[in-house]
Write a structure and sequence with these properties.
Shape: elongated
Number of domains: 2
CATH topology of the largest domain: Dna Topoisomerase Vi A Subunit, Chain: A, domain 2
Largest sheet: 5 strands, mixed
Number of helices: 7
CATH class of the largest domain: Alpha Beta
Distance between the termini: 55 Å
Length: 199
């Protein structure tokens, strides 16, 4: 603690962010103190704008600040293939690869009974609504190779099996316990190309 109450409160707020430790939080707090009043207002405005304008795309549940996200509104995308991912960061990772031309569906989490996350907490209802369109021929389940990712993938495969749509899983190449957002572009591209059917 610095002994300066307002600085300590600011540090605590930064420390609440995922992946930010106490020292990093303090560094960020001190950095903000060097900002001019105009820079502080711009910083606060950016946070406020992001919170007010960003919402879920009604089609794919990805984050966007438009009515429909740029991917769903792109006429060049292949709407017959839907790639199901955990969160918006995974969409960004795939888009960097530039080899996937289908569309996405963002779950906003993974099934985790230990954390109290049940299937109802994910955007699975919205996925089922999308599959009422008979033109969808494949659903790629691209959750990470973690225990929760595998459990979610198996749940989705069983959920979609009666619908007669082909359900595939990313190929090996992403190590068990690996998060998609940290995979390099070549690994992600190969995992996508080598996807396999569920057994």
């Amino acid at each position: 603690m610095s002994g300066i109450e307002s600085l300590d409160i600011l540090t605590e707020q930064f420390a609440r962010l995922p992946g930010i430790g106490r020292k990093s939080a303090q560094r960020l707090a001190f950095s903000l103190l060097k900002y001019s009043p105009e820079e502080i207002e711009a910083f606060i405005g950016a946070i406020r704008d992001a919170k007010e304008k960003i919402h879920r795309c009604p089609t794919c549940q990805n984050l966007t600040d438009r009515d429909i996200c740029p991917i769903c509104s792109d006429p060049g995308r292949d709407r017959t293939v839907i790639c199901v991912v955990e969160d918006a960061r995974a969409v960004m990772a795939f888009e960097k690869v530039r080899s996937f031309r289908g569309v996405y569906h963002v779950l906003h989490g993974l099934i985790s009974p230990m954390s109290g996350v049940t299937p109802d907490a994910l955007s699975l209802r919205e996925l089922l609504l999308r599959l009422e369109d008979a033109s969808v021929r494949e659903v790629i389940v691209a959750t990470g190779a973690t225990t929760e990712g595998e459990a979610t993938a198996m749940y989705i495969a069983r959920l979609l099996q009666p619908l007669g749509v082909k359900v595939t899983r990313l190929a090996h190449g992403i190590p068990f316990g690996g998060e998609l957002e940290y995979a390099d572009e070549i690994t992600l591209s190969r995992a996508l190309e080598g996807r396999r059917d569920f057994d």
